[in-house]
Amino acid sequence: MTGLIALTGATGFIGRHLLADLTARGYRVRVLLRRPTALPEGAASAVVGDLTRPINMAAALSGVDAVVHSAGLAHAMSGAPEDDYRTLNTEATRRLAEAAARAKVRRFVFLSSIRAQVGASAPGVVTERDPARPTDAYGRSKLEAEQALAETGLDWAALRPVLVYGAGVKGNMAALLRLARSPYPLPLGGLAARRSLISLDSLSGAVDAVLRAPDPVRAALIAADPDPLSLAQMIAALRAGLDRKPGLVPVPAGLLGLACRLTGREALFARVAEGLEARADGLAALGWRPAAPTRDGLARLAREGS
Questions:
Q1: Is the pLDDT of residue 118 over 70?
Q2: Helices H, strands E: what count in the chain?
Q3: 135: left (phi over 0), alpha (psi -120 to 50) or beta
Q4: Which CATH superfamily is domain 4-165+198-224 in?
Q5: CA 254, CA 222: separation in Å to the nearest integer?
Q6: Residue among 195, 210, 189, 160 nearest 274 (CA)
Q7: 3-class secondary structure per residue, 93-161
């Protein structure tokens, strides 16, 4: 499929990259906007207003082959009530999908989250065979949006990316990048739990693989690069991109955890010490491959952002 794509969320971290990448891959892209916005050359636009109360959707989706829906309320926006997540992630997705079904759109690609399946960490390797058990309002809203898609009769795919990194990243990955750029040795060498990541380039490749799939998809697919890393390995990769040595001190995880508890940083320790490995079997079956090894991608992020 290389036809007309309707893209939401094109001003966000992931959406900006999707707009550039899909255009470079030969797709024609129509960006669905809440209000008029300047766009790169070659991208058309349609103003549809708030997706929870969309307007002009028949015209906006006229001639569209597929919808790529990346807009939503991000997990990093802490403190949002559960109703806000349900309104902006679940109901907005439902209404957009219903409009797409009326417009006879061929495929609907939804940018969900690994949090629709699991919590912030998991004891084993997460696969698509595992039951979805979200642990917070954000994850529940994404899972409910997937379930709403399944009720529309559309050919749909929900991508569940793990932590996404790339130029312009914010949140936990931005904090990790700042930590790697610090000039000091870091007491993180003893943390062995691994986390799966995915680069913006790999994620846009996953969207392309789903768009091009010859058969109906109708499934939630994990999006994760195949080489999970420990926090120490992530720091080492980032510092390698800065032409620096890892500078990691192997303090035992238990001792580091005690120090964090004594200083009121238990939540921070949980984020860095616990693992979340995931396997992208469904995408691999569609022929998707990561854009680059995770170590190389992190080194590039540090190098190009320095």
A1: yes
A2: 12, 13
A3: alpha
A4: NAD(P)-binding Rossmann-like Domain (3.40.50.720)
A5: 31
A6: 195
A7: HHHHHHHHHHCCCCEEEEECCHHHCCCCCCCCEECCCCCCCCCCHHHHHHHHHHHHHHCCCCEEEEEEE
Cα separation values, 78 from 11, 137, 146, 162, 226, Å? 20, 11, 22, 18, 29
Q: pTM for the full model?
A: 0.92
- Is the predicted pLDDT of residue 264 greater than 80, yes or no? no
- Asked if residues 4 and 28 have their Cβ atoms less than 8 Å apart, the reply is yes
Give SS3 for 228: coil
What span, in angstroms and rounded, lies between the C-alpha atoms of 141 and 266? 26
Report the SS3 class of residue 232. helix
Q: Which residue has the tokens 């569209």?
A: 64
Token pair for residue 281? Answer: 């079997």
Reading the block at residue 110, the tokens are 């939804």
The two structure tokens encoding residue 10: 């094109």
pLDDT tier for residue 176 given thresholds of 50, 70 and 90? confident
Cβ atoms of 248 and 188 closer than 8 Å:
yes
Closest CA to 209 of 105, 293, 147, 282: 282
Place of tokens 């058309």: 44
The string over 261-296, giving b where at least 16 C-beta atoms fall within 10 Å of a residue's C-beta and e elsewhere, is: eeeeeeeebebbbbbbbbbbebbeebebebbeebbb
Q: What is the pLDDT of residue 272?
A: 63
